[in-house]
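User: what does the whole thing look like in 3D?
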Amino acid sequence: MSEKRPTIYDVARVAGVSRSLVSLVLRGSDKVSDASREAVETAIAELGYRPSRAASELASGRTETIAVLIDDYANTWFVDLLRGLEGELARDGYRVSVVDTAGATDTEALRRSVDALLSLRADAIVVARDLPPSLTGRTLTTAVAPPLVVAGTRLDMPEGVDGVANDDAAGARLVAEHLLALGHRRIGHLAVAGGAGAARRASFVAAVAAGGGEVIVVEHDGAATEAEGRAAALGLLRAHPELTAVFGANDLMAIGVLGAARELGIRVPEQLSVAGYDSTEIAASGVIDLTTVDDRSYDMGVEVGRMVRDLVGGRPAAGERRVLEPTLIPRGTTGPARRL
Amino acid sequence: MSEKRPTIYDVARVAGVSRSLVSLVLRGSDKVSDASREAVETAIAELGYRPSRAASELASGRTETIAVLIDDYANTWFVDLLRGLEGELARDGYRVSVVDTAGATDTEALRRSVDALLSLRADAIVVARDLPPSLTGRTLTTAVAPPLVVAGTRLDMPEGVDGVANDDAAGARLVAEHLLALGHRRIGHLAVAGGAGAARRASFVAAVAAGGGEVIVVEHDGAATEAEGRAAALGLLRAHPELTAVFGANDLMAIGVLGAARELGIRVPEQLSVAGYDSTEIAASGVIDLTTVDDRSYDMGVEVGRMVRDLVGGRPAAGERRVLEPTLIPRGTTGPARRL
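Assistant: Here's the predicted 3D structure for the full assembly of 680 residues, as structure tokens:
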């Protein structure tokens, strides 16, 4: 750290232009000739100059970073959330950084992940997973922590925290109605832990029952991965050959069901219909083509971004909860129930 | 920020224990009774106390965060890299945070992503994508930036920067030899931009030619996504019905080929063999079951972690390049070439 940090004056000198012209280039002005812009950019690269963001951060106490806590990088439902958040906040100059908790198997490990999140000194924190109340609670919302927005349906949300979620109960009901309309009455469900999982399960079971059907629920407390979905589905389909459809609590679990069906020689959708939740990119791939629920992750990200802007701007947290309506995306993995 | 930050003494007072007992709990000691631990944890939650990491960071100038720059959260090859990095550095107390560049379509946008990375004030930076020399170069390696390690085969790596990669040329050769041994001679390749993509393509084309075959290469400059792979494969398979195999430059592109084949009514592997690269979790799913190359991402993460430890510990950057041997993972998407 002993080398002198280059300044905007150094850049101007090396580029042979005025300091104000360097400033214009840094602000992305279109009033700069290509030649001057190039000279400035070359000088910036040569000097290793970094625009004064760091200095202004030190002065303002802002990092212009939004830190997002997610479950697991391998479960890509969060990607659209980030895209929406980035899209909404790009013009404010915010950048987004992510910390995951896939390796955190107990509260202490989760606390370390939350520490990692806080150590980023972000201007706001977005929590997109369930957390024990001791962590979502005062640890995050105390005066030493930045503003917090919760994304998704989460258990034990402390009062006063703002959040955006899709209506998981409504989404699961859409799946139930879709399967009932196709004639399915004996349906499996791979449930997952957490607020979204609980809402989906309760609503799905109730809606299928209201339509005269019955749901066999497999509880699952661990990570909601493809491998777990596959293992759970193998057990379920072997024990319940009467099932004509399975609803996985998220796309990864549902993709696991597709793998299990293939392993057991069960054709999808002729012999078994399969649906997921989240509308991930991989679910839309031609080879998977999974019926799923669009949980409006992108729009959720946009709404989270608006809340972040308000909170950073000084609006006190108000416990506002915005809810987005999900939609069903019927694809090739669901079809009419086979005759038993 | 006006509220007084709670201290370890406040925690001890509220929990009704000594300060040194709080300290033991914070260090995870097993010499503390469950009752005391619970009292301390309750007090920590109530007060919103955060262990003195932030304070010690301010004193030491360290954040104990490693910041990783990746291409795109949706391309999950990086997940194993992070797991290896986290595994290696967990005992040092480091945490990992990620910034992606999927939205960065020009150098200026990339520069903003690099700014985001630098603004995390991480103790070290890991770059796991290609960057223009002006960004990987002095912008990152100047004295104001933290130590840098490059992960993966990257173009234009500045001299003196340390890095770890798998041997992409060797990996592509393994795919070529596998397909040649299965009798394939007319093979398509969906290439991607960047250092790893270039190495894979050149080696694949040479190895197939050496075995008496021929490769039709489709160049692709954009994002290496499933959708792009599918679109490219649709064009390729329509224009070249004589192809009996396609090698996608990564798993996502290869999954796109599987989707294209399905759309065209081409059976895999009976009529078309498909291979990818990266050994992602989704490629291993039962429903995709993709032949791929294990690029040793987890081990790469471990090696990156070791380099990070050395560099943070004071070893000067030495331009060291460690190379890991990839292995082929044959699965259900490759089989004997059909007779034409």
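In plain terms: The domain at 168-295 of chain B is CATH 3.40.50.2300 (Rossmann fold). Confidence is low (pLDDT under 50) at residues 52-59 of chain B.
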